[in-house]
Structure formats: structure tokens, C-alpha cells
Amino acid sequence: MKLDNIEHVFFDLDHTLWDFDKNSELAFREIFEKQKIAINLEEFLEVYKPINYKYWELYRNNSVSKKDLRFGRLKETFDSLKFQTQDATINLIADDYIEYLPNNNHLLDGSMELLNHLKGKYSLHIITNGFEEVQQRKMKSSGIHEFFETVTTSEEAGVKKPHPQIFEIAVKKSGAKIERSLMIGDNLEADIIGAHNFGLQVIHLNSHDQAVQNQYPQVQKLNELLNYL
């Protein structure tokens, strides 16, 4: 079903356009080689991913600081794997990760094709809970920065999605009308419920095919968005 009243499209970045999992794996591979961390990368990532997700949930709910997120997700992963390492080394890995991560430029399948299709038809924007210092670098290294008229981060807004204030700031920056705006993202709570409660139209990118039943339109792949736009 085509959405014929949309003028502004707001995207989440990580896991929606930017392939966080692939780029994160490449960053850890490079860091572990540099730091001579003798650990199986696949085993590390299997344990790290759910722990990282948990820490981002805590961060979004203001239960941990940015510093605690960066350190804690690594510390808990190494402890779970019974891999002995010093806190100082974990801090070095945490710092390197923020430095190396945005250097990788893989996008989710269909991202560039979708953006090229939407460019000129809609005003495009980013709303992200990611860290200010890395999100711009991610977009530039992957070649998508030029598509977006505005980028609103949680650090700029002072709150994180799903707080209505971040959507309010993003809409105000864009000059959009709420009723003519659409939010697309992978996180049901932060992106979809948050944006819907603020009054935006929404489409959930359920790329991991999670078993979720809700009233929101959803797609599994980015190219399916062309059915709506």
C-alpha cells in the first residue's frame, strides 16, 4: 500500500541502513590482532552480541553511562568466556573499537538502491541513539551522508529514543509536518513505538524476522519499502 501523503522520511542508522554486525566484526578482528588477544572471534561475538544489546537497553533507559556501556559490555563478555584480561586492556579495546568501527563501510542489502530511489522524492533524515562522534563518520565512510538533510543524535537531543523529545527536535530541525512524516527503524520500542506515540507514521524493519505481533506495518528487507514509497 503506497503512502501518498509522506514528504519526510526519517531513518534509524545502525541495523537499519548501516550493517552494524558486519562492521563490528571487522573492527574486533582488527583490534584483537593489534592487541594480540588470543580469542576465537566467532565465540566472542556469539557471547558479545546479546550482552551488547542488553547494555544498549540499559543505556537507552539511562541505567548506565556511555563509559559504563563501552567497558561493561566487553568486561562481561570476557568474564563469561573465562578469558583473563586486565581492565586496562579492556579500556584500550573499548577506545580502539570506537575508533575502528566507523572505518568500515558495509551497508545492509538494498540500502544504497533504496536511498537512490527515495532521493529527490522525499526529504531524508537520520535519528539515532548512536554516539555523536562516530555516527557522522559511519555515514561518510559508507557513502550515504550526502542523502540526508539532517542528522539528529541522542547526545545532541539530551534524550534517547523512544523519548518524544528526540523526535520533536528532529522534526523541528527538518521543517517537517508530523502528519507527513515517516519513521523507519529496526528497534520496535525505540524506533517504532517511540515515533508512533509522537505521531509519526512508522514502518518496522524486522530484518531478523523476530516473532512480533503488532499493529505496525513491517518489512523484512529494505527493498520491500518500495511497496510503500
Please characterize this protein's 3D structure.
It is a single chain. The protein is α/β, with parallel strands linked by helices and 229 residues long. It has two domains: 8-19 and 107-227, Rossmann fold (3-Layer(aba) Sandwich), CATH 3.40.50; 20-103, DNA polymerase, domain 1, CATH 1.10.150.240. Helix content is 48%, strand content 11%. The protein has helices at 20-35, 41-60, 66-80, 87-100, 111-118, 132-141, 154-157, 164-174, 188-198; strands spanning 8-11, 123-128, 150-153, 181-185, 201-205, 218-219. A six-stranded parallel sheet has the order 3-2-1-4-5-6, with helices on both faces. Strand 4 (181-185), helix 9 (188-198) and strand 5 form a beta-alpha-beta unit. Helix 1 packs across helix 4 (87-100), helix 2 runs antiparallel to helix 3 (66-80) and helix 3 crosses helix 4 (87-100).
Question: Topology of this protein?
Answer:
Layout: E1 8-11, H1 20-35, H2 41-60, H3 66-80, H4 87-100, H5 111-118, E2 123-128, H6 132-141, E3 150-153, H7 154-157, H8 164-174, E4 181-185, H9 188-198, E5 201-205, E6 218-219
Parallel strand pairs: 1-2, 1-4, 2-3, 4-5, 5-6
Pfam families: Hydrolase
InterPro entries: HAD-like_sf, HAD-SF_hydro_IA, HAD-SF_hydro_IA_YjjG/PynA, HAD_sf, PGP-like_dom2, Pyrimidine_5'-ntase_YjjG
GO molecular function, one term: 5'-nucleotidase activity
Structure summary:
Pfam families: Hydrolase. The chain is of the alpha/beta class and 229 residues long.
Radius of gyration: 18 Å
Note the gap between the termini.
9 Å
Order of helices and strands: EHHHHHEHEHHEHEE
The SS-based structural class is: alpha/beta
Residue stretches low in confidence (pLDDT < 50, at least 5 long) are none
Tally of DSSP helical segments: 9
Protein name: Putative hydrolase of the HAD superfamily
Keywords: Hydrolase
Organism: Christiangramia gaetbulicola
GO molecular function, one term: 5'-nucleotidase activity
